Amino acid sequence: MKTVPAIARRVAVWGTVAIAVVAPTQYGIRILDRATLSVADPLVWLAFAAWLVYCFGERPAAESEPAGSLWRARWRAISPPLLHALLVAAAALSVPRAGDRLLAAKDLFQWIEYLLMAFVLFSGVCGLLVPRRRIAWLLLGMAAAVVGLGLVHYWTPSVPDFGVRATFGNRNVFGGYLAMMLPLAFGLLLYDPHRLRRAGYGLLIVAGASVLLAGGSFLAIALAFAALALTRGTRTFLVLLAVALLAAGAVRPLLPRDNAEILHRSVMLCEPDDESMMHERYAEWQAALFMIGDQPWRGVGLGNYQRNIGLWFGSLPDKAEPAEPDSQNLYLVVGSTIGLPGALCLVALLIQAMIGALKSFSQAHDPVERGIALGAFGAMLGFAVNSFWSPLLVRGIGLPLMLVLALAGGRGRPK
């Protein structure tokens, strides 16, 4: 008969697997027109509760074990990293300043779910209860399914460029997802010795790149691929460059959309029909900087960016029509809503995670593990760069990001 901790262990493991399957989508159930509940949200709560039960009920301390060491190990297994906790704390301190406190509280709960609950769960399960490679392959398998739907959108003439979105709300969020998954696949492509799997990684990269219509995501992926290739060696970088140039010359004319023109227009500094006017995206960047300068320490309140940004445009060009959805700068959004300390915590969190992934890469001996660690570094680099053009800490992206962070190196379970 299974004990309660053994049952909790299985729930935590299969809950993590289920989250990895259903997480990459922005679809959900609208609740009272104030919040959206995704399929993954209750799974996170259930699996995290099971992880707590497993950690505190695994076994009694042995007589030879130093007093208190087991409890310290258990608390370590359920405690989030300091930067995660500081980022959430900065967000919580901003809530009383929000004009719409209910919206701020809703976003705070989502950050707690992603940065604390999900990360603690994933970092405990990945590599300890479930091999990292299985989680990585599962993530890429789901990415293949998402890209497949993106291909359907891309090859359907009636779907506008902005609507090539797969399971996400628009091309910007879809591009942010690809900015994580394609570098992860490329890292494994560089090191996995299994030829059939390498062919699968390559096919995913080609298919994902062909449906990518967000310029910021393209720049992020290009930088991540260049960094990973250079880590492997100069020859690998030159091969990547040659393949990219060949694809641009040979494949581009065969596509039904002018990808290069669409990508270029999506990140232009000026309006395409009026070069004297700054593009709405970059005018908003400057307005966000003004908002940070006016409220540098605690911001205007988590989740209240759109409610306040219009007040800081001043004499900047503010077009009558709204800006393209999900085209803001994540760092400016965070800095203006929860303050500069919170924005610095976010930047430090990403840098620390990338350094940790590179350490895991240098210490790993198995080629697949090296590929996963290097791919996790590339995925986080892609997320960090892409976040200049899109606020990617959102539903559908947050949980895959936490899984990628966990792939870079889990912290251990109680012993």
What keyword list fits this structure?
single chain; 415 residues; mainly alpha; two-stranded antiparallel sheet; two-stranded antiparallel ribbon; globular
Question: Would you give an account of this structure?
Answer:
By secondary structure, this protein is mainly α. The chain is 65% helix and 3% strand. It is built from 17 helices and four strands. It has helices at 4-22, 40-57, 69-78, 82-94, 101-125, 132-154, 171-191, 195-210, 215-232, 234-250, 259-266, 280-294, 305-308, 330-338, 340-363, 367-386, 398-407, and strands spanning 29-31, 35-37, 270-271, 274-278. The strands form two sheets. It has a two-stranded antiparallel sheet. Strands 3-4 form a two-stranded antiparallel ribbon. A hairpin with a 2-residue loop joins strand 3 (270-271) and strand 4. Helix 2 crosses helix 5, helix 6 packs parallel to helix 8 (195-210) and helix 6 packs antiparallel against helix 17 (398-407). The two termini are 22 Å apart. Mean pLDDT is 89; it is low at 410-415.
